[in-house]
Fold this sequence. Notes:
By secondary structure, the protein is α/β, with parallel strands linked by helices. It has helices at 24-31, 49-59, 76-90, 95-103, 108-121, 139-151, 171-175, 184-187, and strands at 38-42, 64-68, 127-131, 157-162, 179-182. The radius of gyration is 16 Å and the shape is globular.
Amino acid sequence: xxxxxxxxxxxxxxxxxxxxxxxxxxxxxxxAHPEAHCVLAAAPAGYGKSTTLAGLAAxxxxxxxxxxxxxxxxxxxxxxxxxxxxxxxxxPLDDHAFKSLLLSAADxxxxxxxxxxxLLERRHPCILVLDDAHxxxxxxxxxxxxxxxxxxxxxxxxxxxTRDPRPLGLARARARGRVIDIGxxxxx
Length: 188
């Protein structure tokens, strides 16, 4: 399934095929937890994670952006840039803050992540879907993902599809009640 539109700024949620199996029970469960900041759909390929998250975004009134992750997103600067560009498509970012974050050669943990978090916290509510998050297999990209989930603006949702949730490092967010897990049993 093509996850991004052909246009350079195309961050749209992919349309659902007419023959899509609706997972109303899962979607109703997610709708019953508006306080959650993250939905983590974890299952092997072919279980309908992406389709379920597309259905979630389609039935929600918040604006949504879709990021199909790939090997290039293992680079922390590329990942931050793509997240911010997707959010910018929903609501323009402050150009100065955006450029200073991306052009900075400063340390990721002590300088860039706090700036990234500050940008996230000032956003209007939205949904950001990260598909194929299992490619985020470096310490730096997991730190970015954790910052995203921890600092996404109140009322927003990060929806993550992955084949393997273990390395994503969301235990602290999960313990704080910010993560709803969807697994194989939910998707069958």
